[in-house]
Amino acid sequence: GKGIAVFTSGGDSQGMNAAVRAVVRMGIYLGCKVYFIREGYQGMVDGGDCIVEAQWTSVSSIIHKGGTVIGSARCKDFREVEGRMKAAKNLIQRGINNLVVIGGDGSLTGANCFRNEWTTLVKNLLDKGEISSEQANKCEYLNIVGLVGSIDNDFCGTDMTIGTDSALHRILEAVDAIVYTAYSHQRTFIMEVMGRHCGYLALVSALSSEATYVFVPEFPPPEDWESDLCKRCSEEREAGQRLNIIIVAEGAVDRNGNPITCEMIKDIVEKRLKQDTRITVLGHIQRGGNPSAFDRILACRMGAEAVIALMDATPNSEAIVVSLNGNQAVRVPLMKCVDRTLGVAKAMQDKDWDLAVELRGRS
Ligand code: F6P
C-alpha cells in the first residue's frame, strides 16, 4: 500500500481533528499505511517519535475535539534546505511519498516548495548514502494535497475554510452575551475579532448580530469615518436603541492603510457622543472550543477526498487543495489559490480597495 502522512501546520482551527481522522480512516480503508506527523513541519524534520503509524482506533473520539491532537508548530528549520533534507530522509525511510497538509496558505506554500525540490533532495540523499536506491525508487515523486484549516476564511479558492464556522459560533455567543449587559447600562461595546488580513469573521458576525458598524481590512470605511460612525451610532440611539455594538477586525485599516484600533474608536465615541463605552477583545477564545457540526462534516468530506486525490495522483499531477464549491468538495490547483490569496494581500498593500474586495469576493 501507499505511504501517506498527515500533519497540521500553522495556527490551529476547530475541525482539524475531524480532518485527520478522515484521512487516517480513508487511507486505511483503501489499504494504505497512514502516518501522523506530530508538531507540523518540526516533527517532519525531527523524525523519531514524531512520525508514527496510525491505526483505525488512534483517531477514535477526536471528531468532537477542538485544536489539533497531533500538535502544530511554526518551524524555522524547514525554511532551510538542511531541514528539508532531514524531513525528506525521515519520510523516505518510512516509505512515505504522499502528504496531506492541513494548514493556512503559508503552510501549503511550504509544501509546494518541498514538492518542487523533491527530486533534488532524493538525489542528494542517495548520493550521500543516506537512503538506499530501493527507497529512492519507491519515493521518486512527492504527492501533496492541502486542506485549508484557518478560522479566518482567508483562502481564495474555497467557500469556507475548516474552523471558520466554529469561530463564528464562538463570536456570536460572545456578542449575544455582551448585548444583555450593554442593554442594561445603555452602553456602546467595541468588540475586536480575529482576522489579520481578512474581514470575513467581522463582517458575518456583524450582520448576524445586528451590529451598528463594522471595520474590516479589505474595505475601509469612508475618509471621514469618525463622523460616519458617530452619525450611525447616534441615529440608532435616537430611534430608541439602548446600545451599540461595533465590530472591529484585528487587521482593520483606514483608506490610507493605517490601523483603526478599538482604543481609537472608543476615544471618538466617548468624546463626541459621550456614550459610556467598553472594549472586549475576544482573542483566542475564537479559536478554542469544540468544532461545529458544519466544520466536522466539512473536514470529514475534505479529508476523505484528499486521500482519493492522492490515490489518483500521477507523476505529472500538480499539488492541489480540496475546497468547498457550493456544496461540492472539489480539487483545485494549490498554487492558483495561493497566488489569488496573495493577490488580495497585494491589492490591500497597494490600497486598491476595489480590487481587494473584488478578489476577496471571488472565492
Ligand atoms: O490566522 C489565524 C489567526 O487566528 C489570526 O486570526 C490571528 O491574527 C492569528 O492567527 C493569531 O496568531 P497566534 O495564535 O500565533 O497569536
UniProtKB/TrEMBL annotation:
Mg(2+) binds at D105. Residues 4-309 form the Phosphofructokinase domain. Residues 1-363 are annotated as: N-terminal catalytic PFK domain 1. The active site is at D152. It is found in: Cytoplasm. ATP binds at G11, R74, C75, G104, D105, G106, S107. Substrate binds at S150, I151, D152, R187, M194, G195, R196, E250, R278, H284, I285, Q286, R287. Homotetramer. Belongs to the phosphofructokinase type A (PFKA) family. ATP-dependent PFK group I subfamily. Eukaryotic two domain clade 'E' sub-subfamily. This is ATP-dependent 6-phosphofructokinase. The chain holds residues 23 to 385 of 785 of the full protein.
